[in-house]
Amino acid sequence: MNSALLRYIVKRVLLMIPTLLGVITLTFAVIQFVPGGPVEQMMLEIKGRGDASVGAGESSGGGSSSSTYRGRQGIDEERLKEIKALYGFDKPPIERYWHMLKRFAMFDLGQSYYQHKSVWDLVISKLPVSISLGLWTFLITYLISIPLGIKKAVRAGTRFDTATSVVILIGYAIPGFVLGVLLLVLFGGGSFFQLFPLRGLTSDNWEELSLIGKVMDYLWHLVLPITASVLGNFAVITMLTKNSFLEEIRKQYVITARAKGLSEDMVLWKHVFRNALIPLVTGFPAAFVGAFFTGSLLIETLFSLDGLGLLSYEAVMKRDYPVVLGTLYLFTLIGLVTKLISDIAYVLVDPRIQLDSQSGGR
Predict the structure, then answer these.
(1) 19 and 157 assigned to the same domain
(2) If you average pLDDT over each of 118-127, 206-215, 340-349, which comes out highest?
(3) Rounded CA separation 18/129 (Å)
(4) What is the mean pLDDT of residues 137-161?
(5) C-alpha–C-alpha distance, residues 164 and 162, integer Å
């Protein structure tokens, strides 16, 4: 590793610290003013008045203030203090903030208020669903889009190019959730055919199946949600591949290679392919790592898949602040690291890129 690359990595790592602090601090501050916090919800539950939406407009932020919230009527002060202590709201916001930062510095994401599990355990338990959706979507998208984009570039302006552009743009225009509903109606036993299951990643009798049976059952359950997730991604990668190849094909070195008598396949695969794939290859680290932590709330809800998207949504709705802040910290850190890896990959693939000028232009 050369000194310039090492300096660049150190600089980017140091810049991650204020970015993380900014995101976490802003979110923590906003939470203090969000109505219907866990204290209010617990008091309403005790009084048997349902959820925290009742009278939430008169609530204080995050359950840490001593406002005249209606849900507190009928709750004695001792019980109120116990509830605040249970959720840590007996301490001032600044003390809770510093305590949170100390935990995050040791990668302790805290405990969920309602699920009685650590945030780490919750994230890990939801990963299989998100990995299944994200990783298969990533693989299928790239395995189809890159060859298709190359063929479109080689046959630019032909009927094939026009027809495929129309098809993938139509797919891009259809939201994944709408496509998912359509697939369920057509093939999930809605009104026409029942070819695929409606929900989950496995059948009820999955444990009784053979190894081959388990693999086939798993793939069978993935067909509809993956189809709904993938279709919208084709357009971006395909058109990026096509435009990248077209740009390289028009360059002088390609004309020179052809003039030397090299075959079209030799020019395309030996010279153009390596340079045209640089923008795509450098995006692989972020896309691949992101595949493990992607969560599509709408797709997960539609197909009854309990993944990270649903976890994040429920945490916000229930005001489960340790889950909200813990997952935000984790995913922000992962995003910053994968961005750094992508930039390093860009330099390794194309040594012409200067790290100092790249970082200076950000």
Answers:
(1) no
(2) 118-127
(3) 32
(4) 88
(5) 6
180 and 45 within one domain: no
Give per-residue pLDDT as tens, 150-202: 889 888 889 999 999 998 888 888 887 788 888 888 887 666 777 888 777 88
> What is the torsion angle, in degrees rounded to the nearest 10, for the CA atoms of residue 115, residue 120, residue 125 and residue 127?
130
Q: Phi first, then psi: what are they for 188, rounded to 5°?
A: -105, 20
Looking at the structure, tell me whether residues 155 and 61 fall in a common domain.
no
Task: Taking residues 34-63, report their average pLDDT.
Answer: 57
Confidence of residue 48 (pLDDT cuts 50, 70, 90): low
Structurally, the chain folds into a number of domains equal to 2
Does residue 61 register a pLDDT over 50?
A: no
Tell me how far apart the alpha carbons of residues 55 and 40 are, in angstroms, rounded to a whole number: 10
Question: 305-327: per-residue pLDDT in tens?
Answer: 888 888 888 888 888 889 989 98
Q: How many other C-beta atoms lie within 10 A of the C-beta of residue 320?
A: 23
Return the SS3 of 23: helix
Q: Give domain status of residue 117, yes or no.
A: no
Same domain, 41 and 72: yes
Looking at the domain assignment, is residue 223 inside a domain? yes
Closest residue by Cα to residue 269 from 291, 245, 286, 237:
245
* Residue 314 CB partners (closer than 8 Å, separation 6+): 320
Q: Mean per-residue pLDDT for 13-39?
A: 85
Q: Are residues 314 and 273 in the same domain?
A: yes
Backbone phi, then psi, for 189, in 5-degree steps? 85, 15
* 304 and 194 fall within a common domain: yes
> How far is 316 from 310, CA to CA, in rounded Å?
10
The mean pLDDT value of the chain amounts to 78
Intra-chain end-to-end CA distance of the chain, in Å? 23
Angle in degrees, CA 317, 322, 325, rounded to 5: 85
Joined tokens for residue 6: 């090492």
Residue type, 58: E
* 319 token code pair: 């005001």
Instruction: Determine the Cα–Cα distance for residues 160 and 245; give it in Å rounded to an integer.
Output: 16
